[in-house]
Write a structure and sequence with these properties.
The complex is a heterodimer of chains A (112) and B (114).
Chain A: E1 4-7, E2 10-14, E3 19-25, E4 32-37, E5 43-49, E6 55-58, E7 61-65, E8 71-76, E9 85-92, E10 100-102, E11 106-111
Parallel strand pairs in A: 2-11
Antiparallel strand pairs in A: 1-3, 3-8, 4-5, 4-9, 6-7, 7-8, 9-10, 9-11
Chain B: E1 4-7, E2 10-13, E3 19-25, E4 32-38, E5 44-51, E6 57-58, E7 67-73, E8 76-81, E9 90-97, E10 104-105, E11 109-113
Parallel strand pairs in B: 2-11
Antiparallel strand pairs in B: 1-3, 3-8, 4-5, 4-9, 5-6, 7-8, 9-10, 9-11
The chains are: A mainly beta (112), B mainly beta (114).
Amino acid sequence: SQELEQSPQSLIVQEGKNLTINCTSSKTLYGLYWYKQKYGEGLIFLMMLQKGGEEKSHEKITAKLDEKKQQSSLHITASQPSHAGIYLCGADTGGSNYKLTFGKGTLLTVNP
Amino acid sequence: GAVVSQHPSRVICKSGTSVKIECRSLDFQATTMFWYRQFPKQSLMLMATSNEGSKATYEQGVEKDKFLINHASLTLSTLTVTSAHPEDSSFYICSAEGMYTEAFFGQGTRLTVV
C-alpha cells in the first residue's frame, strides 16, 4: 500500500521565517494534495500537484512535486501566526479506485 | 471553493446507542464520498468509500455492520455508528468529490461515547 512520510513531525518557527515541509512516497504519486487542518476541524484544500516538476503557489505558500513524482515539498515564505496548524499531504493511490492516503501531518507553530 | 457541510460538529451519546452523522455537498454533486476517522495527533484513516446509489466499499478492518454508510443522493451521505462504545469515540471527517473536482472536506464530527 502507498505510504507517505512527512517531515518534520512538528516545527516551531519565529514569525517572518521561511520553512519547508516534505512529503515522501514509497510509490509514484499520481496526484499529490496538500491540506491544512486546525486540529479538531475539517481540512482546507491548499494545492494539488500532478505532473513531475510541477510547482504551484498561492499567496506565500509554494508546493513542488519532484520529477520522479515521489516527493513533494511545501514551502512557506515569511511565516505568520495564521499559518499555524497541521499540514497534511495526501496522495492519490492511482488505479481505478480513486482514494486518498494521508501522511501523519506536520504540526506548525509560528511564534509572534 | 466547494462547500461540504458535516453535521453535527459534536455529539455525545450513551454507550449502546446509535449516532448518525450527515455529510452534504452544498454546491456540487458528489459522485463519491469518503469517510475518515482521526485519532488525536494522528493522520486520517480512510474508513470507507461510497458512490451514490451503490454499496459502500469498506477498508480492511472496518466493520461494515457497525459503521453503516448510506449515499442515497448526489448531495448526501450518512455514517451511522451503531451500538456505539467508548472506543468509537473519535473525530470523523467526510469528504466529497464531484466528477471534475478534487475532494473537499467537511468540518468533522467529534463523537464522544460515554
